[in-house]
Specification:
The protein is an alpha/beta fold. It has a single domain, classed as 2-enoyl-CoA Hydratase, Chain A, domain 1 (Alpha-Beta Complex). 40% of the residues lie in helices and 23% in strands. The chain has six helices and eight strands. Strands 1, 2, 3, 4, 5, 6, 7 and 8 form an eight-stranded mixed β-sheet that branches. Helix 3 links the parallel strand 3 and strand 4. Helix 4 crosses helix 5.
Amino acid sequence: MEKTTYINFFSLVWPPSVGALMNIISQKIQQGVEKIVLLISSPGGNVNSGLTLYSFLKRIPIELDTFNYESVDSIAVAVFCAGKKRFCVKDGKFFMHELQYNIPAGKAQFMPKELSEVSNNLEKDRKKIVSIVAENCGKQAEEIGKDMEETKGLNAEQAKDYGLVHEIKEELYPQGSEVITISVWPNA
């Protein structure tokens, strides 16, 4: 019987949670796990962390499926796309939007070169995210880019029609399964 581990990622996408997830996955692969199902409910978070996680998940040497059990938003949509098979509960939802730049605390002034670098980096990251979603959903990049610009929300059925979800199902995992939870949030 195939050795499967279920990992519940109920977290912001940011360096501490992504590092913890990659560490657990690496350990499970070393222990001989053959498949991982990544259960996701996330508001998104740090774009660089999300792109790093997507790249890591797409290149692990075992099968990975993803499962939205509530809401997958922002950069977490790109992470969700890493699954070979992608599932969602019937009341799950997805939310895509344009990238944002948060001004660092205490930074009130920018030189023109700094603004240009920020703009260029945002555009590069945007193109990566658009490419990831388009490639995994079988859509044109222009359509994904427009949907991000217009802020697109999808329920489970819409996400299935969109190509983001392969199947809607309710049972997250069989009784007796190994489930590891990662829930890392910044202190408020």
